[in-house]
């Protein structure tokens, strides 16, 4: 970047993409534009729409806690509180080679995980990008693609040399399928509904583990599906493997969800299964569905309503739609489009590029928030490069402030979810660690700080006892550990519910 910050330069985005930057000294005069005062007035309006007071947060926590209880008491609730059949914590001594397949949102990942005991592991992995068509096409085809990727991975990494499979050897596989599935045992899972924009046909209501096994058979792979897990459950177990203070796991990525360890005696809806009431089992909350359909508790703006109405699943995942990476960029884009329609922004410029739904990536919000320059060069770069739009400094400051409001609201709502689990489980006094993962948590500047600040707004000083930390890779390593735990249970003759 030129030292004077005048003229042109380039900036490399986190994604590796390089964008051109142009700074102008007289931008206020080039085009018709909103004045600084107008932008400040607009900002005040959005501030009141997107800001959550501590009092409002406490009300949300109360409703959230009741919802969690309801999901544990009765089957088929909106927040389903899914028993995962992952019993208790890992010992840290789980060992061996395991495959993990991770179907989560944007990518498909295949991993070979070698658990070495004492909380140590090694991982080899390959990522495959999913196309939009694959997400919407027939479900069996999607699983066939997963099996095909697994086949390529095994041929490449275990076909010959050191890692070569021995004749007759069969590798246990943990399948991380990060969508709500109701489970009767650990290698079973009926898809309740697709989330995160997926919509593959002939899958909802069916056992995805059985569907995937069918795809595996086509390739005659020496692999046995041992466990079907959710990314949050994997994160919970993987984080505990390396940090035993972890009691809760949260994903802030394309979707948003949490898992925690529950006492079987406190899950009345599975009383009939005859599991030892003293046992512990991980619960996949699927809290993204909180306040779905009824919309009674969460503060939704009209932009949130538009995001919901135009989604492939209107009414569903109400909490997730205010928080997760899939939606934040779209919320900001909708505010900008409103101001374009009102004749406030980009007068005399062609705004067609910005008018395409979901074109404003959530990564742009984090880039705008982390722009270190007074002139907001990064913001200039985003708008000129991706949307062919000229901006004034006042506008750029407004965009950045708006990103902050939307990002902050997401973090504070997330704090409400965490607080609900903490209250329900009585973790506040003793404190606990929350393993967190996902692009928003890992890449959005200040996200974790805002969650912590939110927890203090809810609980006062004691909120400091609840600390989030970057989690271990739950979908890869966690999946392998759960496959190992399941295998150990089987070897120990605990067939029931394995
Ligand atoms: C969505 C899915 C959930 C997953 C979360 C994070 O909320 O329904 O299963 O854990 O995204 O990936």
- The helix count comes to 16
Bound molecules: alpha-D-glucopyranose
Helical proportion? 40-55%
Query: What gap, in angstroms, lies between the N and C termini?
Result: 58 Å
Biggest sheet: strands side by side, in what order? Answer: 3-13-12-11-14-15
Structural class: alpha/beta
CA-based shape: globular
The whole-number mean of residue pLDDT values reads 91
Rg result: 24 Å
E-strand count: 15
Strand content: 15-25%
Could you list the spans in which at least 5 consecutive residues all have pLDDT below 50?
1-7, 23-28
Which sheet architecture does the biggest sheet show? 6 strands, mixed
Task: Tell me what the structure shows.
- By secondary structure, this protein is of the alpha/beta class.
- Helix content is 41%, strand content 19%.
- It has a six-stranded mixed β-sheet, sandwiched between helices. Strands 6-5-4-7-10 form a five-stranded mixed β-sheet. A two-stranded antiparallel ribbon has the order 1-2.
- α5 crosses α6.
- The longest helix is centred in the C-terminal third of the chain and has 33 residues, at 393-425.
- It binds alpha-D-glucopyranose (GLC).
- Alpha-D-glucopyranose (GLC) is lined by residues 104-105, 178-180, 195-196, 230-232, 251, 253, 255-257, 286, 288, 320.
Keywords:
six-stranded mixed β-sheet; 498 residues; disordered N terminus; binds alpha-D-glucopyranose; 41% helix; five-stranded mixed β-sheet; globular; alpha/beta
